[in-house]
Amino acid sequence: MAVNIPGLVAVIVFYVLILATGIWASRKSKQEEKKCSGNKSEVAMVGGRNIGTLVGIFTMTATWVGGGFINGIAEIVYLPHRGVSWTHAPISYSLSLLVGGLFFVKPMRTKQYVTMMDPFQIKFGNAMSSLLFIPAVLADIFWSAAILAALGATMAVVLDIETYLSIILSACIVIIYTLLGGLYSVAYTDVMQMVFIVISLWLCVPFAITNTAVADIKYTVVNELYQSAWIGKIEVNQIGRWIDDLIFMTLGGIPWQVYFQRVLAASSVSQAQKTSYIAGAFCFTLAFPSILIGAVAVSTDWNQTSYGLPTPNERQEASMILPIVLQYLCPIYISILGIGAISAAVMSSADSSLLSASSMFARNIYKTIIRKKAAENEVIWIMRTGVVLFGAAATTLALLTNSIYGLWFLSADIVYAILFPQLVCVLFIPNTNTYGSAAGYFVGLTLRLLAGEPFLQIPPLIQYPGISFENEAFEQLFPFKTFTMLLSLLSNVMFSYLVSYVFKRKLLPVRFDVFKITDRTQALPAAPEEQITLNETNNPKLEPDKNDM
After folding, report:
1. pLDDT band, very low/low/confident/very high, at 549 (cuts 50, 70, 90)
2. Please, which residues have CB within 8 angstroms of residue 273's CB and are 6 or more apart in sequence?
3. In the prediction, which pLDDT does 155 show?
C-alpha cells in the first residue's frame, strides 16, 4: 500500500490552517496582556476572564470531544458483547458538565481562582497541594500521550505513513500555537477544530452506511449477523461495574484543570454555567456519528472489502475501527475528511492538557513555592517552558510506551479516588483540614493501587466480591472505584474532625500541630504567606473566608 498522497497533502493543509489560527489568536492574547499589564499570566492561563460565550462553548466542547471520545465510542460499540449498552461516554460526559455547572462552577468562579489547585493551596497549604498536583499533572500528560499515540495509529491506517511522523508533527503544531497564545490560541483553534469535527464526521456517516458490504444497521442493532448485535448486553453480575463506570466517568470528569480553566476564563458565573450546560448537550449530540460508525463496523462483511478477513476484532485492531471504516468503506475524499476530524479532535484535547499542566506548575508550584517574588513575565516563561517539557514528555511516551492507555486509565482512576473527594471537601465541607486531606489522599491512592490494573498487569491484592478471572486477566465487577472514592472522602472528613477535636480539647499540645491548623482556624483570613502567594492580584475574593475553613 502506497502513501496516500492526496490525504497527506490535505492533512498538511489542515495543520497549516490550525497553526495560522493559533498565531492569529496569539495577537489577541498580546492585546489583552497590554490591557492587563499587572496580570499577564492570568491572560495566558484564563484569557483575562474575557472568553466570550460562543468561544467558551466551542472550546469546552472540543476539549471533551477529543480523539479518545470519537475513537473510543466507535470501538466500544463495535466490540462483541459491549455495544451501545456499554458506551457510557455520551451520557456521562453530558452529566459531568451538567453536575459541574450546577454545583462546582459557582464556588470556583465567584472567588476568581486561576487554577483548580488554588483552593487546595489556600486551605491545605503548599505541601499538601503539591501532593495533589502530582495526580493532576500526570493525568494530563498520560492523556496527551494516549491521544497522540491513537492519532499516530490512525494516520498509519489511512495515510500509510510512519506512526512516529504523525505523532511528532501533531505534537509540534500543538506546542507551537499553545506557546504563542496560551488559552486564547487554544480556544480559537478549538472553534475551528470543532466545526471541522462536526462537518466531516457527519459527512462520513451516510457513505459508510450505504456501502454495499454493510448490512442494514437497523437489523443488526438487535440481531446477530456477522457478530453479536450492536445494542450490546449487560449481564446481571455486571450491573455493579456498569453503574461504577457511569458514576466514575461522570464525577471523575469534574476535577480536571482543563474543565476549570474554561470555567474560570468566563466573564461571569452565569456565563460559565451556561457554557458548561450547552457543552454537555453538544457532547451528547456529537457522540452519534461515532455510534453509527461503530454500528456500521458491526454490520460489515469484511470479506467484501479490500480489508478482508480476519475481521478487525480478530486482528486486535478494534481500537482503530473508526479509521478502518473511513479507509475501507468510504470514498478517498471522505476518508481524508475523516482523518482531518480525528486530527482536529486530538489536537483540541492535547493542547488543553498541556496548557492545563503547565498553568498549574507555573502558578501553584513555581510562583507559590519555588520563587514567590517571580515577576509576571517570568511566570509566563515558566508556563511556556512547561508546555514544551510536558509536550515532550507526552510525545516520548506516545512513541515509546505500549501501555499509555493503561497509564491514563490508572491516573484517571486516581484523579477520581483522590481529587474529587478533596474538591468536595475544599468547596463544600467546612473544617476539613490538611490532616484529613493527607488521610484521604493515602486511603484513596492505596486502595486504588491494591485493586490492581489489568491493562498494566498489576495484580489485584484486594479481590472485591464478584472478581472475575479469565485467560490470566481479571475484572473487578464490584463498584470498587466509587467505593474507593467514598472511603477517601469519609477518611478526609473524619480525620479532619478528629484531629481538630484533639487539638481544640488540648488532648495533644499545640506544638505537635505541624500543619498549624489551629493557627488557621483562629486567624481568619488566611495566613500571611498564603495571601502573598495567591493574592498578588489584590483580589480579596482569593482570600479564604470563614465558610472555607
Report:
1. very low
2. 101, 102, 105, 106
3. 79
